[in-house]
Every structure is written in structure tokens, then in C-alpha cells.
Amino acid sequence: MKPREPDRRARREQNRAAKVAKDRELTELYAQAQKAEADGKAAVAKVYYQMVVSRGDGELKQRAATRLASLGQPSRLP
């Protein structure tokens, strides 16, 4: 019996779409943090950066952690 290739393809496509949506959300949160920081709203920026650190991964997570540290908020990266 052949593997159910259409089901596998559908799952891969769903996973890809979910990753794209998550990446878009994190990018938007990071942009909001940058705007808040530029507007002099450090506390608001910290919240957005914390959200990116807690939900993100990779380079964007590291950049948010760096910004948090520069704002006086050490992040808890694993």
C-alpha cells in the first residue's frame, strides 16, 4: 500500500503556512517595538521585545533579546 502522499503534502503545506504566519506576526511585533522605542516609550518597547523573545526563534529572537538588554531588561534565552 502506498503512503498517503496527498495527506503528507497537505500537512507540509499547513506547516509552511503556519510558519509564515508566525514569522509575519513576530516581524510585526518587532516593528511595533522599534516604533515604541523611537517614540520614547521604552516600557512599551520592552513588552513587545519580550513577546518576540518568548514566541520567536533564530535571529529575530536574538535581536529582540539584544534590544531588551540595551533597554536594561536582561532576557532569559535558553
Structure notes:
The chain is mostly helical and 78 residues long. The relative contact order is 0.12. The protein has three helices and no strands. Helix 1 packs antiparallel against helix 2 (42-55) and helix 2 (42-55) runs antiparallel to helix 3 (58-70). The longest helix is centred in the first third of the chain and has 34 residues, at 5-38. The protein has helices spanning 5-38, 42-55, 58-70.
Separate helix tally = 3
Distance between the termini: 43 Å
Shape: elongated
Helix content: over 70%
- Roughly what fraction of the amino acids lie in strands? under 5%
Uncertain ranges: none
Which class of secondary structure composition applies to the elements?
A: mainly alpha
Q: What is the string of SSEs from the N terminus onward? A: HHH
Q: Return the average pLDDT rounded to an integer.
A: 90
- Largest sheet properties: none
Rounded to an integer, what's the Rg over CA atoms? 17 Å
Number of strands: 0
List key phrases describing it:
single chain, 78 residues, mainly alpha
Task: Report a brief summary of the structure.
The protein contains three helices and no strands.
